[in-house]
Design goal:
34% of the residues lie in helices and 25% in strands. The chain is α+β, with helices and mostly antiparallel strands and 165 residues long. Helix 1 packs parallel to helix 4.
Length: 165
């Protein structure tokens, strides 16, 4: 059985390095997308400091649909190009928002959210969805988070069976 291990890291880079083996452990022997996305979200929600929501939105029917997550109830559907998630999906680039109140068109699923990071999930150049993390802390996410989460998304996608819908 897998057990989450809290880590003390000197830097965010070290924190993500310490989370990587835990992610491998969670995904070991399981290829189901839903199961792996649920555990991936839980790992991030429980072990990253000051994260108030962590989850995935799946690319379905030309838009993003809520997938496995940890945190308060969230927006169910997001159009491509709308909000932080839709923008990251449209551009196929990670988006770090230090202050969501200054992001044009921000979709406030949780009014307490102050910062957000969204990492596109793609395989073979095709969009699968996005990883979305929110925080009530201002300026919680930065380029170190972006780099660490992009690596973790790559690990997740390589260990998981994906389907294109």
């Amino acid at each position: 059985m897998f057990e989450l291990k809290e880590t003390e890291a000197a830097s965010k880079t070290d924190l993500y390095k310490s989370l990587t083996p835990q992610l491998y452990g969670l995904l070991d022997g399981e290829r189901d997308f839903t199961a792996n996305a649920a555990n991936f979200s839980s790992l991030l929600f429980n072990l990253l400091p000051e994260v108030s929501w962590a989850g995935v939105y799946l690319y379905r029917g030309g838009g993003l649909v809520l997938g496995p997550f940890q945190g308060k109830p969230a927006c169910t559907r997001i159009a491509i190009g709308k909000g932080v998630c839709g923008t990251a999906a449209e551009k196929m680039k990670s988006v770090v928002v230090r202050d969501v109140h200054e992001f044009p068109g921000h979709i406030a699923c949780d009014a307490a959210s102050n910062s957000e990071i969204v990492i596109p999930m793609a395989k073979e150049g095709r969009l699968i969805g996005v990883l979305d993390l929110d925080s009530t802390a201002a300026a919680r996410f930065d380029d170190d988070d972006k780099a660490g989460l992009e690596i973790m998304v790559e690990i997740f996608l390589n260990a998981t069976d994906v389907s294109f819908v």
